[in-house]
Amino acid sequence: MHNIRQDLSHRSPTDPSPVTSVLVYIVCGGRRTGTTLLSAILSSDERANPLGQEAQVLTRIVEAYRWGRENFEQFGQSFFGDPKTYRAFFAKIAARFAQEVSARISPGGVLVLKNPELSKVLLDVADLFPNARFLALVRDPRDQIASELEVKARQLAASARNPDSKTRNMDSLANQYAAYYPAPSRLEVWARRLVASIRDLVNKRRNIIDLARYYISYYPEILELGKQQPERINIIRYEDLVLRPDETLLDLQAATGLDLTFDPAKPWSRISPLARLHSTPSRSDLYGAPIDSRSVGRFRRDLSAEQAVAVEKFCADFMDKFDYQRSI
Questions:
Q1: Which residues, at least 6 apart from 309, have a Cβ–Cβ distance to it below 8 Å?
Q2: Rounded to 5°, angle at Cα 105 from 100 and 270
Q3: Taking phi first (over 0 means left), then psi (-120 to 50 degrees means alpha), and beta for anything else, what does residue 151 get?
Q4: Whose CB has fewer CB within 10 Å in the chain, the N or C terminal residue?
Q5: Angle ∠(103,108,112) on CA atoms, nearest 5
């Protein structure tokens, strides 16, 4: 964490909102940075909800709010009159979301919500949840990209094993096209999709610079919130979480005010069956297991030296900011 003891331990726990008494903790940061692990840690407080599904629904609510805010004059003025009324409408939705979801899954009044995609609309999340606290994860970009490549490989393997799965937009287009022509054989359909998948992986998904750019895209609003309201956000390094778990847990407890009973040496507790930790291509063998540091430095095994240097060059400012050592 960057550095939670130095920068954040003086902060008091979140004060209940005048609209809702729920204490909301938002976990964000790039994909493959440990957001699921951190959510499991926060959920070890008995007042919090068990680790469950990602807060995709909340993300879509906030994205809708942002779109309407940015296009208010053209599409919102006749319905709400002015931006203040528009914001108040969505603030009520946000408060109701927190209150009703908490009543259902966290009667103790502590709601832990996690989705990396919230990072890209974080300033609006902070606006709609004025008393929420934010915990953002960062990770060595080289390791994050190595992890992303593993996920892409799983997705390709899943597509090969199940050629009928419609995991790409191209499937819908292919079906529309096929409607005008004699139906190809099942094997031919599978082969076409597999070749298209490989081409996509080689030309786009495995482009290291594109992956680095995508990773960095999660952080502008995290950093901006840190400038605007530093008392509301904790920035945590994945490496601190897994290499120094006992110290980091103490710092997290002091910073959040939560009673964290998470034991780094034991399997995760308080996991909802709906979390489905091991059933998607984005799964990790580390999910649910005692904290393990073997993924730190994985880029040395999974990336070529040329690829690692390319990431370092593109992410130089990011790596310097969060104290990641570069080879160049």
A1: 327, 328
A2: 160
A3: alpha
A4: C
A5: 80
Count other Cβ atoms within 10 Å, centred on residue 235.
24
Strands (E), the chain: 23-29, 110-114, 133-138, 233-237
Whole-number Å distance between alpha carbons of 76 and 62: 15
Report the predicted TM-score, pTM, of the whole model to 2 decimal places. 0.82
Quickly count helices (H) and strands (E) in the chain: 16, 4
CB hemisphere CA count around 242 (13 angstroms): 22
Q: Could you tell me the mean pLDDT of each successive run of 10 residues in the chain, 328 residues long?
A: 45 45 97 97 97 96 98 97 98 97 95 98 98 98 95 73 55 46 52 50 64 97 98 98 97 96 94 79 78 95 95 97 93
Q: Which tokens belong to 75?
A: 């599409």
> Rounded to an integer, what distance in angstroms lies between the CA atom of residue 36 and that of residue 27?
9
Contact (Cβ atoms closer than 8 angstroms) between residue 252 and residue 41? yes
**Nearest Cα residue to 162 out of 138, 118, 193:** 193
Q: Which among 66, 2, 31, 72 has a CA at the least distance from the CA of 218? A: 31
